[in-house]
Give the backbone structure.
Amino acid sequence: MQIAVFGAGYVGLVQAVGLAELDHEVFLVDIDEAKVEALQGGSVPFYEPGLEDALKSYIASGALRIETSLDRNPELAFVCVQTPQLGDGSCNIAAVKSVLASAHLPELVVIKSTLPPTEFRVLEVESNCELAMNPEFLREGTAFDDFLNPDRIVLGVRTPEAEQVLCSVYEKLEAPKLVMSPESASLTKYAANTMLASRLSLINEIANIAEVVGADMDAVREGLGSDPRIGRQFLRSGAGFGGSCFPKDVLALATSAHASGYDSKLIRPVIEVNEEQAGRFVAKIEQELGGVNGKRIAVWGLAFNKNTDDIRESPAMRAVKLLLAKGVFLSVYDPEAMQNARAELGSDVHYAADVLEACDDADALAALTEWDEFKEVEWPRVAVRMKGGFVFDGKSFLDRASVERSGLKYAGVGVCD
Ligand code: UDX
């Protein structure tokens, strides 16, 4: 099928390359000339495993073309442009509206951008095309693999014809195709992110309680995760969650519900708990070290998640800024996010060449992104480089026993010696 994809950001690029992999002929359209030029040259402007090689190969085969405007009539279009947060927490759909006003649109246009059910209906009333909703559930760092191996494909459609077209687009993917109304599809996306984010804020609150009542969060996590109704995923407590989706989508759901006449009691506190969590992590470091002014702290991880260079809403960046404000000398290292961090932190921190150099003479180490490289480090080699003995785990991902065997003291959120 000939398919246009509007928006060459994170979602659109993965969608376009993924559709090419499913043997479609794809036209990726973005109004940013510099971005289009870079992509035409095979260069992906962010770090996402597997994506750049696939992009290059589909450009070379001619299956994927990248342009600044659409000059032909495709059979189907996906809209993947940004829907940023407005000051009141609602979702700005101006970019989607502008795509829907462009020339050469097909009869069926599929919205992939995250937007609430009410906004979908606004677009539907204004558009000359039939609209459908097909939310994405991609995790940064595994996005291309998530596209090719999804748990489910949610198709929000108004007509059997739209259902048939979308089912055939994704025919090669084995995942169950869940057909529903566009409103339900949109709410499914918000519900999934809000459910996961709530789980993280709840587990962080339980970890905070563990600290004040003298319980051990590692043991509690094991006890909780053993219940199959609860499961083991998304139980790691720490300095909070981040990224471009969770904070924005959780707030947008509460705001959109309020605008439609429902005041949620549970949703907003999910964000409030998260916003305080990095501060609690820093307070813990302060308490254990007996003050941090003038101390030297190594920071492992700046990205909001492993396998990405994305620092948007990153708890690591939040903690770094709080520590800087308290007069700490920071030596930071992240395998991919150093360049993005440098744009925000400038020369306020030392950028280390590797995990070990970051630890040289450090009074303490704070690990804030769950990169495998940090998990697999040889702790005795870390211990000899450090001056002090504390390792603060901001994502509950390090092996406590290995840390302690090397003579270092492990402190997680909800876990103390
Ligand atoms: C999320 C959803 O998973 C995805 O389906 C949606 O489309 C976009 O938002 P993403 O934000 O890219 O994806 O990453 P995810 O792996 O979900 O991690 C979110 C945050 O939670 C990260 O900061 C991560 O470190 C944190 N996290 C995750 C924890 O703090 N503890 C955990 O146990 C798991």
About this structure: The radius of gyration is 23 Å. The chain has 17 helices and 14 strands.
